[in-house]
Structure formats: C-alpha cells, structure tokens
C-alpha cells in the first residue's frame, strides 16, 4: 500500500514538474542552461498584451482582432543570413498551409539590415505581419539569440512553444491549429488531470509499466554469451558505406568507454545496445537538435539501449579547428568545457548521459585513420552491440542508423539474456519489487556467474 502511494505521488510530481516542457514531446526545444529553463517557464503562460512593444511594423500593425483566438507563429529572421531566410520561407509556407485554420505569421527582423531586407509576402489567404526589432527589445523579451528562432502562441494567447527547432515547427503549428480556443485555455487543467489519471492508474496496476519501471529494475546477474553466440547471432555484414566516406578499414571495430567524466551519471551498459553520438559545443550542428533527438530515442528504447553523448574535439573538413583544440589546452579551459556540458544537460533536462572525451579516444578507436568530418554527417553516431562491437557508424540521419538499433535489439544475445533475467525477476517478485528509478553505480552491478564480461565490452 505504501509502495503504491509512493509511486503515485512520485509520478504525479514528475509529470507536473516537466509539464511545460513536454506539452508535446515531439517538439524539440532549443537552448541550454539557465536560458532554456527560463524559456520553459514562459511556456503555458499568457503572452502579454504589450508583448509586441518595441517593434516597428512594415505596413499595418496587427489589431487585437487580428490575433484574438488565432494561433500565431513568430519567426525571428535576418535577411543577410541564408539559413535564416530558409527559416522565414518555412514560416510563410506554414502561413499558407494553415491559412484556413486562422494561423497568423509574425516575422520579426534582426536589428541590423532591415532597410535592405527583402520583405516577405504570403499567398492563399494567409495573414502575415512584418516588423523590425530596431533596438532588440522584443528579441530580449522572448530570450531569442539566433536567426531563425521560432515561437508558437496558441488560440488562448498562451506561449505554447518557446524557441523551438526548425524541424519541429510544423509539429508545433499543427498542434495549436487543431485545438479550439476553449481547449487551449484548458490545457493546464488537462495536463494536471492527465497526471492524476496516470498516477492513479499506476497505483492500481499490478503490472510494471515498461516506460517507467522496466528501466528501474535492479541489475540482474546472467551468464555473458560467449564469442560463438555473437558470431551465430545473425548480425548483418558491416559495410563501408556505414563507416563514413573517409574510413577505408573494413574491420568491425571494438569500443570501450571511460569509467569517469559522465553527467549526470554513468549509464548501465551491460547487456544493452549502446548508441554514442559525438558532439562539441563549438559545432552546433553536432548537438542541436541531435541532443534532444537522442533523448527522445532514449525514452523510446530506455530498457535496452544506453545513449551517450561524447564531448569530443571534432574536426570539420575545411575548417580551422585550432579554437577547438585550445578549448581543452589548459585547466581553465577544461573547467569551462565541464561547466558548459553540465549547463547544456541541465537546461535541456536530458534523460541520457553525456561524457567528456577530451582527447577523442572514443572516436579514434573507430576512425583511426581520419577524425575529420563533413558538416552534413552531423550528428555522427556509432551503434554498439552488447559485447562492444561497432555495428554502425555514420550520420544519425541515415536510415541505416535506426535500422541497426532495431537489428541489435532483435538478435543481440547479450540483450536477450539480460531481458530473460529481468523477466524472471519480475515473475518471481511482482510489480512491487521494482526499485526507485535510480541507476545503480558501476560498483553495484551484480557479478556475472559462470563467465565474466568481455574486456572489450562497453564499461
């Protein structure tokens, strides 16, 4: 009884604590650290009536009637930046596509270069307002620091999604245009009601909920499969195309992971597939939106896959990487990187682990002949089976990436044995035996009877 009450209380608090940031988990937020936390607090709050102050309108300013009860897409844009112009075109396409649903687009130009900027237009009955943020006051008020940046206001006038990725714009817009004004107004009450419902359901259920509890079962001992089991498992042949264009070695690589340097903690990897992605805060394309996308996959595959983001001194083809190398050159630089890494994780409330790999040893183990990358390969990932062999390396945007993850989960003998041990534990102890959702430390991992883990197994 006490356990059920505790589970219900914990689940309710968890859902309510992250409600603003997870109104739609498929909408990926941008930003990090304290700034992202402030942006999260802006969500599900009323956009102030004077929120447009400081803007100079090109043409008519929006009247109250233009915005009342309407979903609004705000795009921050700079005409002198190519990627920003593409973002603006996306916003105008959304305005045209959802014109029948009343979507209003507000395009706000950077303080610099507005006079020379090509002013956007919109067709097919769409409504567009163009403004100049001459003093940067509006940008500051909504915590925007790049072009493009996107914000979505719902029919109830609430900031529904604050500073989201380009890839998430249509998902966010489609969410708010589908709602009636009354539904938008009641979204906070709906979230609380849903949290109460889920918590009550968890308390009544005698079954362990896979998404919540299967990841918190104590590590169970099992016999590590031998080399022959992996040979006969049916992994498909590792192809050159999946090693990156500059990697000519056909050999299946082995990967080891460091014992320390993880944030927030070292993940459990035994009997699991491991996905490691390589990133550097000085190369935004390596982690934004990749870090959030990996977090979504961690929630999906949480029982069987450990996602790890390795901070690495990446090299980009044709780019002077001296600044990246200097970043780790002295003790002060090391502390800056550590702090930046922690702030990024905190601000994004990520549910997977990140680790410092300052010398690039993890990456060098699998790309020993060339550590440079084309920008289009970002985010760069490796998929590792439970005995430590790399089954895929390349861009996470390649279809082979998730295909390999699914294959590893289907055929990996270590994953199968760990699952069997967990299933036996559940059957013997019941749902109430699940431990709190805290990953045990490496030192508490049960010994494997009959055989020890391979020395090449991810640690």
In which range does the helix fraction lie? 25-40%
Task: Let me know the average pLDDT.
Answer: 78
- Specify the oligomeric state: single chain
Return Rg in Å: 24 Å
Identify the overall geometry. globular
Structural class, judged by helices and strands?
A: alpha/beta
Question: Could you walk me through the main structural features you see in this protein, from its secondary elements to its overall organization?
Answer:
With 459 residues, this protein is of the alpha/beta class. The protein folds into two domains: 21-189, Glutaredoxin (3-Layer(aba) Sandwich); 214-444, 3-Layer(aba) Sandwich (Glutaredoxin), CATH 3.40.30. The protein has 15 helices and 15 strands. The chain has helices at residues 2-17, 33-42, 64-67, 82-97, 137-141, 169-178, 181-185, 187-204, 227-231, 290-301, 322-326, 331-348, 361-366, 399-411, 413-429; strands spanning 45-46, 56-58, 72-77, 104-109, 127-132, 149-153, 158-164, 262-263, 273-279, 305-311, 315-316, 353-356, 372-373, 380-384, 390-395. The chain has a seven-stranded mixed β-sheet. A six-stranded mixed β-sheet has the order 8-12-10-9-14-15. Helix 1 packs antiparallel against helix 8 (187-204) and helix 2 packs parallel to helix 12. The longest helix is centred in the middle third of the chain and has 18 residues, at 187-204.
């Amino acid at each position: 009884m006490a356990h059920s009450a505790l589970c219900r209380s914990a689940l309710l608090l968890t859902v309510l604590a992250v409600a603003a940031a997870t109104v739609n988990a498929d909408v990926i937020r941008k930003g990090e650290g304290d700034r992202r936390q402030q942006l999260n607090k802006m969500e599900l709050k009323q956009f102030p009536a004077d929120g447009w102050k400081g803007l100079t309108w090109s043409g008519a300013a929006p009247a109250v009637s233009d915005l009342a009860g309407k979903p609004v897409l705000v795009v921050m844009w700079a005409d002198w930046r190519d990627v920003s112009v593409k973002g603006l075109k996306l916003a105008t396409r959304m305005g045209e596509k959802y014109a029948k649903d009343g979507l209003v687009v507000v395009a706000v130009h950077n303080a610099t270069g507005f006079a020379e900027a090509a002013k956007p237009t919109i067709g097919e009955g769409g409504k567009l307002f163009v403004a100049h943020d001459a003093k940067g006051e509006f940008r500051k008020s909504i915590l925007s620091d790049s072009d493009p940046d996107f914000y979505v206001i719902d029919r109830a006038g609430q900031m529904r999604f604050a500073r989201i990725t380009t890839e998430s714009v249509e998902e966010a817009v489609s969410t708010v245009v589908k709602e009636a004004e009354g539904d938008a107004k009641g979204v906070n009450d709906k979230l609380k009601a849903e949290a109460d419902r889920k918590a009550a359901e968890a308390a009544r259920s005698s079954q362990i909920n896979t998404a919540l509890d299967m990841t918190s079962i104590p590590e169970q001992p099992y016999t590590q499969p031998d080399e022959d089991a992996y040979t006969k498992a049916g992994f498909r042949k590792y192809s050159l195309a999946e090693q990156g264009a500059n990697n000519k070695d056909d050999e299946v690589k082995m990967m080891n992971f460091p014992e320390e340097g993880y944030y927030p903690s070292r993940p459990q990897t035994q009997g699991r597939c491991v996905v490691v992605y390589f990133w550097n805060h000085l190369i935004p394309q390596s982690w934004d939106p990749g870090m959030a996308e990996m977090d979504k996959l961690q929630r999906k595959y949480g029982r069987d896959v450990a996602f790890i983001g390795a901070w690495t001194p990446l090299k980009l083809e044709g780019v002077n990487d001296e600044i990246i190398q200097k970043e780790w050159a002295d003790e002060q630089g090391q502390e800056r990187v550590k702090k930046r890494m922690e702030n990024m994780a905190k601000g994004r409330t990520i549910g997977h682990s990140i680790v410092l790999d300052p010398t690039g040893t993890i990456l060098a183990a699998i790309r020993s002949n060339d550590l440079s990358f084309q920008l289009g390969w970002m985010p760069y990932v490796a998929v590792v089976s439970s005995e430590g062999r790399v089954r895929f390396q390349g861009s996470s945007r390649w279809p082979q990436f998730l295909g390999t993850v699914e294959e590893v989960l289907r055929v990996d003998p270590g994953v199968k044995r760990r699952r069997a041990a967990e299933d036996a534990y559940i059957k013997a102890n019941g749902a109430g035996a699940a431990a709190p959702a805290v990953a045990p430390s490496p030192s508490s991992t049960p010994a494997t009877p009959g055989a020890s883990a391979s020395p090449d197994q991810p640690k």
